[in-house]
Amino acid sequence: MLNINKFIFYFILFPLAEVIAFATVAGAETLRTKNFEIKITRQCAEGNVICNRVTYIGKDLKTGKSIRLTGKTVNNPKSYTFLGYEFSNGKYRYFVNTSNVLQVYKGRQLILKEQGVSIEK
After folding, report:
1. Is residue 26 within a helix (H) or strand (E), and if so which, with residue range?
2. Is 87 in contact with 70 (CB distance < 8 Å)?
3. pLDDT per position as a tens digit, 31-59
4. Can the keyword Transmembrane be found in this entry's annotation (predicted)?
5. Does residue 107 fall inside a structural domain?
6. Rg (CA), the chain
7. How far are the Cα atoms of 25, 33, 34 from residue 66, in angstroms, in the given order?
8. Is residue 41 part of a domain?
9. Cα separation, 102 vs 31, whole angstroms
10. Domain range holding 68?
11. I need a surface site. Which of 2, 45, 73, 87 has the fewest CB within 10 A?
């Protein structure tokens, strides 16, 4: 006789969990500036305008050191137009806009601004 709990797990819950896991990752973008290579990954379903689960992995091309941050999309509050991504690290705020410009702020002061280009990875 078929155990109902095993049936529910293997034929309903397990396939559903796989679909959800693969559907939630919309993809990654890689950007290279003069000094950094940045990989941004959205952990939200494709088509979501607002995403609060975005990962930033930035690698310093000179030293090889990396930093991993979690952030969100930034959208125009009235039109919901996508403006870029924002990440925080203590006093520092990282912003990557739709033109592939990396901006790093310490408090309100802009301390770094570098134009980047999208690269295929």
Report:
1. none
2. yes
3. 999 999 999 999 998 878 899 999 999 99
4. yes
5. yes
6. 19
7. 22, 14, 15
8. yes
9. 9
10. 22-119
11. 2
